Automatic annotation (TrEMBL):
CDD domains: GT4_AviGT4-like. InterPro entries: Glyco_trans_1 (IPR001296), Glyco_trans_4-like_N (IPR028098), Glycosyltransferase_grp1 (IPR050194). The keyword Transmembrane does not apply. Residues 18-119 form the Glycosyltransferase subfamily 4-like N-terminal domain. Residues 171-297 form the Glycosyl transferase family domain. Keywords: Transferase. One of its GO terms (molecular function) is glycosyltransferase activity. Transmembrane segments: none annotated. This is Glycosyltransferase family 4 protein. Pfam families: Glyco_transf_4 (PF13439), Glycos_transf_1 (PF00534).
Length: 352
């Protein structure tokens, strides 16, 4: 198939540091190429891929201080994709609802993977207005706020099989927190769990500008405890040692997590996950196999000892079964083929 992958421009594909959506776009694109498909990646110019790269900006917008209006290159990218649409059998967007107005009014099959939270009230009229725009969820729970959306399927994220591996020489000796410092990620809970279990905690996380006040007021005062080590943002190559040497990954979230890529990154290393039962967590974590989905701080604290006893080979085996990049790509190809077989692509827009 001739497939266009259209990525956000905020980060490169793959991102240099943090960037879950762009990382998944990269894994998917490379697997599709390996499967023999003709793939064009519309992304920032500093992206790296085996596909044909269509550079839509000089570099990732987050790393380019000369760009003050991020909507301008994004708008131009949508126009470029539209002009080239007939070069492809299918257009796969990773831009949330932004493609809906333009691409719902043309005949080339397209689909959008929704990577974020969908429980925001302002999304309701958008999806009411575009009932035929095909979308993909990354967990079944993610769909709940938008039953009216045109769901084409659910495709769980996946990682390249050998990107992260268990380390036979690892000596797990700490709990791990990986991702962002933000109120909904509840790093404060992770710190409290570590202290309650007398277990060291290493925090590898970025602090976005919007969360600086939260970090300074809530998290920073908690970092003085001798069990707590704040590392800061780490890159892809550092994740291997960080996760493989952890007793468990703590994901004490307090929001409807759409998927939680960090959880399967830990599983790839054979590291169990202890996560609060919100959003996708009950779907992603196989309770008692790859970790524990908990509902309270007392359950989370009790799960630390149980996570130590989980066979790490079994954690990795479940990753191989459910969360490889090849499985993800094959799921998407099946979905693409179904969309392309439709006799009449979705063209109608509500109330037009």
């Amino acid at each position: 198939m001739r497939i266009a992958q259209i990525a956000p421009l905020t980060e490169a594909v793959p991102p240099k540091l943090y960037g879950g959506t762009e990382r998944i776009v990269s894994y998917l694109t490379e697997e599709l190429v390996e499967l023999g498909h003709e793939v064009t990646l519309f992304a920032s110019g500093d992206s790296i891929t085996k596909a044909t790269l269509a550079p839509m900006s000089t570099k990732a917008l987050r790393l380019d201080p000369s760009v003050r209006d991020a909507n301008a290159p994004l708008t131009l990218m949508l126009e470029q994709v539209y002009r080239r649409r007939h070069e492809f059998d299918l257009l796969h967007f990773h831009l949330d609802y932004l493609p809906f107005p333009l691409f719902s009014r043309q005949s080339v099959p397209f689909v959008t993977t929704l990577h974020g939270r969908l429980d925001l009230p302002e999304l309701q009229p958008v999806f009411d207005a575009f009932p035929n725009a095909p979308v993909v969820s990354i967990s079944n729970d993610q769909r709940r706020p938008l039953p009216q959306a045109n769901w084409a399927g659910t495709v769980y994220h996946g990682l390249p099989r050998n990107l992260l591996r268990p380390d036979p020489a690892a000596k797990p000796g700490y709990l791990a927190f990986l991702g962002r410092i933000a109120p909904e990620k509840r790093c404060d809970r992770a710190i409290e769990i570590a202290i309650a279990t007398n277990t060291p905690l290493k925090i590898a996380a970025k602090v976005d500008k919007v969360d600086v006040d939260y970090f300074e007021s809530t998290i920073k005062p908690m970092l003085d405890h001798p069990l707590i080590e704040f590392i800061g943002e780490i890159n892809e190559t550092q994740k291997q040692d960080f996760l493989a040497n952890a007793i468990a990954l703590l994901t004490p979230i307090d929001w409807p997590e759409p998927f939680g890529l960090v959880m399967i990154e830990a599983m790839a290393c054979g590291t169990p996950v202890i996560a609060f039962r919100h959003g996708s967590v009950p779907e992603v974590v196989d309770d008692g196999i790859t970790g524990y989905a908990v509902s309270s701080m007392s359950e989370a604290i009790g799960a630390v000892a149980r996570a130590r006893a989980l066979p790490r080979a079994a954690v990795r085996a479940q990753f191989d079964k459910r969360y490889t990049g090849r499985r993800m790509a094959e799921d998407y190809v099946s979905l693409y083929e179904g969309l392309c077989r439709r006799e009449t692509p979705a063209l109608a827009v509500a109330a037009e």
